[in-house]
UniProtKB/TrEMBL annotation:
<dbReference type="GO" id="GO:0051537">
    <property type="term" value="F:2 iron, 2 sulfur cluster binding"/>
</dbReference>
<keyword id="KW-0411">Iron-sulfur</keyword>
<dbReference type="GO" id="GO:0046872">
    <property type="term" value="F:metal ion binding"/>
</dbReference>
<comment type="similarity">
    <text>Belongs to the 2Fe2S plant-type ferredoxin family.</text>
</comment>
<feature type="domain" description="2Fe-2S ferredoxin-type">
    <location>
        <begin position="3"/>
        <end position="92"/>
    </location>
</feature>
<dbReference type="InterPro" id="IPR036010">
    <property type="entry name" value="2Fe-2S_ferredoxin-like_sf"/>
</dbReference>
<keyword id="KW-0479">Metal-binding</keyword>
<keyword id="KW-0408">Iron</keyword>
<dbReference type="InterPro" id="IPR001041">
    <property type="entry name" value="2Fe-2S_ferredoxin-type"/>
</dbReference>
<keyword id="KW-0813">Transport</keyword>
<dbReference type="InterPro" id="IPR012675">
    <property type="entry name" value="Beta-grasp_dom_sf"/>
</dbReference>
<keyword id="KW-0249">Electron transport</keyword>
<protein>
    <submittedName>
        <fullName>Ferredoxin</fullName>
    </submittedName>
</protein>
<keyword id="KW-0001">2Fe-2S</keyword>
<dbReference type="Pfam" id="PF00111">
    <property type="entry name" value="Fer2"/>
</dbReference>
Length: 96
């Protein structure tokens, strides 16, 4: 199962397999999102979901319940559960 991910405002798109973090799924196709710890602690990758469903794969990701309610996620430890749109102003593409 894989889901479509659209990154705004750049309009970059890629597919994310179930079981693959959004950060790694992006990197698989040359899309680089801000990151540092890659384990849900540092919040460097913090971004906001505009549409769709995302789950965190660790029990205590570094986002508060309030932030999660507003759609904030940590893509290094999050996976898509539907087609999604996320805001990542600093996303860059090193693909073709
Ligand atoms: S890279 Fe540190 S929380 Fe995602």
């Amino acid at each position: 199962m894989s889901y479509s991910v659209l990154i705004q405002p750049s309009g970059l798109r890629f597919n994310a397999e179930a079981g693959r973090s959004l950060l790694r799924a992006a990197e698989d196709v040359g899309v680089v999102l801000p990151s540092s710890c890659r384990n849900g602690t540092c919040r460097t990758c913090l971004c906001q979901v505009r549409e769709g469903s995302v789950v965190h794969t660790i029990e205590w990701p570094g986002v508060t319940r309030e932030e999660r309610a507003e759609g904030w996620i940590l893509p290094c430890v999050a996976e898509a559960r539907s087609d999604i749109v996320i805001d990542v102003p600093l996303a860059a593409s090193f693909g073709d």
